Every structure is written in C-alpha cells, then in structure tokens.
Amino acid sequence: MKCKVCRQHAVIDVRRHNAGFCRTHFLDHISNQVVRTIKEFKMFGPDDRLLVAVSGGKDSLALWDVLVDLGYDVTGFYLDLGIGGYSTRSKDACIRYADGKGAKLIVRNLRDEHGYTVPELSKLARRAPCSGCGLNKRYEFNRAALEEGFDILITGHNLDDEVATLFGNVLHWNTDMLGRQAPVLQERILTAGHGAQKVMVKKVKPLVKIAERETAAYALLKGIDYVVEECPMVEGNTQHKYKEALTLLEEASPGTKSQMYFGFLKKAAPRFAAAPEDDVELTACAGCGAVTIEVETGEPMCSFCKMKALAHRRRADSLPAPSIRKPRT
Amino acid sequence: MRVRLRNPDRTVEVSGPRDVSMLLQELQIVPEAVLVIRNATLLTRDETLNEDDEVEVRPVLSGGSGP
C-alpha cells in the first residue's frame, strides 16, 4: 500500500478515507483533523488556557501531544482513581510523557479529595464501577478546571467513543442525553443573589473526527509510551460491547461510524436539543455549589454529592459502633 | 511466527508466510479493532509476514467511562 500523499510505503490504512499514509503524512493528517475540528466547532482560540484530562491511555496522551505540538497553552490533568497497579501505571505514563515533553501536569487523587477509591465507591454506592468512575471524573475535571482558572476543559473522546454513546442513547431512547451529546458543551454561569458564578467550564472533544485505531497508531508512531492494558474494572462494560458491534459494521462498510455520528449532529441533534426533559430550572447544589436541578422541597443536591453522601453513610453504617466504657466507680 | 496478543497478554504460534489479513482472519480478529506491529513498525493489511517474524496484535478499542 502506498501513501495517498507522497506515494511512499504506507504504514497505516484509513479505510473510511480510502487512503493509506506514510508515518509523516499520517501524523500530519491527525494534526490537521484536530485543527479542523477545533475550528469547525469553535472550540477554543490560541489565547485560551487549556486543561486536558489525561488517563495514561492512547487517546488523551495523543491529543495532549498534538495540542502541545500545535503550540497551545495546555496542561494535563491526571486523576488517580485508586484502581490498584493499573492506576499507578497510568499515572506513571502521564508523568513520563509530561517529563519527556516538558509539559505541565496536575495530579490529584480521588481518595485524598473525597475519601474513597473507585473500587471502594463501587461497593459502597452499589453501582457499576464505570458509572461511579465517570461521574467522579466529570466532577473532578470540572472542579480542577474551575479552581485552577482554566478556560477550556478538553477530553480525549474519539469517534468510537461518541458513536458508541450515541448508539446506546438511541437503543434506550435517552432523549435528554441525545439533546446534550455534542463535541462542545458550553460553560454554565449561575446568577444568584448579587452576582454570577461560573459553575461549569466549557468542555470540548477535539478527537471526534478521529477513530480509536488512529489515535493508537498516532501514539505508537510518536513513541508515546501509553498504557495498553484495559482497566481491570471494565469487564462486561456495555460501551465496550457497543464498540465491538459498531466495529464489525465499520469493517463491513467503512465510514459507518462517521456517517452515524456526523449525520446525527447535522440532522437529528437539533431535534433533541429542546427535549422536554431539559426544560428544568437550574440552581447551585447545596453541598458543593455545582450546577444541579432545582427541587420543590428540600435542598438541591447534585448527583455527585448524593453519591458521595451515600458512600460515606454506608461506610459509617458498616463500622462497628464505638464501645462505651463504664465510668469507674 | 510468534504472535503476541494483549488483554490478556499471551503468545501464539502461527505458521508463515502469510499476509496480515490472513493472520487476523485465522485468529478471528476484526482488522479495524487492532494494530499489527512488527519491530515497532505498523503494518498494513497487505504486508507479508514470514515464518521467523515476531508480531504484536494490539487491540485499540477501550471501554469504561471514557477518557
């Protein structure tokens, strides 16, 4: 196979573009796709302070690398989830990358911040590990971006991630989720009392035009030492099953994933944007100040605070009651 | 040839020569779900693999709650 651009030996085929690329032109192709996505969806400008959430995996490290090479002011953010050796190796991959590239990295630990790891949370809250993990990551990424004064929060969600999420939302007709699925989620500002407060930083996904196989190829070709192993808690994860099914379709008909996702954005997403479920009043969480839905009775609590409170309550309930000594007579 | 598979990590022996497409077909692996690597170099589906090659078939689909 020859490179589409220079006719030299190709190292990768991108079948949905009916093209092969040599190393140099594949790296250019990925960088160009990211640049096009940033411009097309008006994600950010050259003066914005960017925080990219990194996991030690191929997608986030590849994205970080592209953005650093493009000259953006971008800092990595790694959240240690406490998933044993997997988290240690993931954190090490992020630190190695940052050190080698001279890039800025912020590291936080979920246990230090909130008193539990993801495996502990899963048991205490009695919910699927990926569900609790996702909620905590979204919360902590946003909190870190707000606290550290970043303009934009960036995640490494790629085309496969987005199309699998879309597939799941369609299967279950999650119309409110369909209304919110987009490459850009604008910042939210709550107005209360005497002033306005930013409660959610603008979130963007510059890899939505790039398939997972391509981010892996980019990382490999750039010599990025990413974590190949899967998270040990992912077994049975539905999102993974959707990806496998969609990849079978992509193999049979290249371009399927891209057509489904970008067709949705163009033709269907606007129809769900004003779904009745979205027509709710937003307010500040009584626990942490994050944005949440107003309630008729009681104090409004965001889903993160509810889950955290539940986990700590169950942990306290499971501890033996303190012994009461009889006073000496 | 020796073929390293991941998640879980294991090695299998496959006879050569054969091209990458045939190898993946024999291992019942969807080509779009993996990268095939020889000596730290990516291989396209039409590349020929020889009896004494050592290759890695690296999965690219990740699960979980996302990046």
Q: Would you spell out the secondary-structure blueprint of this structure?
A:
The complex is a heterodimer of chains A (329) and B (67).
Chain A: E1 12-14, E2 19-21, H1 23-40, E3 49-53, H2 58-69, E4 73-80, H3 84-101, E5 104-109, H4 110-114, H5 118-125, H6 129-147, E6 152-154, H7 159-171, H8 175-180, E7 184-185, E8 188-192, E9 195-200, E10 202-204, H9 212-221, H10 238-252, H11 256-272, E11 282-284, E12 291-293, H12 303-318
Parallel strand pairs in A: 3-4, 3-6, 4-5, 6-10
Antiparallel strand pairs in A: 1-2, 7-10, 8-9, 11-12
Chain B: E1 2-5, E2 10-13, E3 18-19, H1 20-26, E4 34-38, E5 41-42, E6 48-49, E7 54-59
Parallel strand pairs in B: 1-7
Antiparallel strand pairs in B: 1-2, 3-6, 4-5, 4-7
What report would you give on this structure?
- The complex is a heterodimer of chains A (329) and B (67).
- By secondary structure, chain A is of the alpha/beta class.
- Chain A has 2 domains: 41-271, HUPs (Rossmann fold), CATH 3.40.50.620; 280-317, no CATH class.
- In chain A, 48% of the residues lie in helices and 15% in strands.
- In chain B, the strands form 2 sheets. Chain B has a 5-stranded mixed sheet, with no helix packed on it. Chain B has a two-stranded antiparallel ribbon with strand order 3-6.
- Chain B starts with a strand and ends in an 8-residue tail after the last strand.
- The model of chain B has no long low-confidence stretch (mean pLDDT 92).
- Chain A binds chain B through residues 1, 10-13, 15, 20, 53-55, 57-60, 130-131, 133-134, 137, 155-157, 160-161, 212-213, 215-217, 220-221, 228-231, 233-234, 237, 239-240, 243-244, 247-248, 250-251, and chain B through 6-7, 30-35, 37, 40-46, 58-67.
